[in-house]
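Example 3.2
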Amino acid sequence: MDNETPEEEVTTGTPEQQTPVEGETATSEEATADSMTTTSGVPELTLGSGVPAETEEDEVIKPEPVIRGKLDKMGVAMGTGRRKTAVARVRIKAGSGSLTINGQSLNDYLRVERDRQMVEAPLKATETFGKVDVWVRVTGGGTTGQTGAIVLGIARALEAYNNQFHETLSAGRFLTRDSRMVERKKFGFKKARKSFQFSKR
């Protein structure tokens, strides 16, 4: 009799344990089905349909350009340009279109036609050539360095003279400072990289 009672308890316990397992499997299957429906439903959502993204792009505000020139109370625009070791200080005001460099005219100071065209380029790009007076004081460097410094100084002064010229001058790369410099001489070399003549004997 003692042996029969544990067998009955074991037999009665096994079906009770099997029924919750079936319930658990059912719940797990339902959970997986729910997860499948949610994952499959995510790409099908059409909320917004990309319209807010377009409005956000339209509402993007461009930052204001940094103006490096100055405008004094008399209406004279000033700009400083540098190239290599040359520094040019430029002043622009409304006038008859005269261009003076260190007290001389453009043709007298710059003998090369290419340099003269480069100096006139920012004025022609903004359609102010012949409408403003340009006064330039430039020091240091050579002809090429001084020409680049004058171009940058004129461009910065024109930008201060009228803010609407920024896009035109920026597109023409007149506001870009040319950072190329002469490489310094190194010890044991004749120049920056050129070495002395090698002697075998």
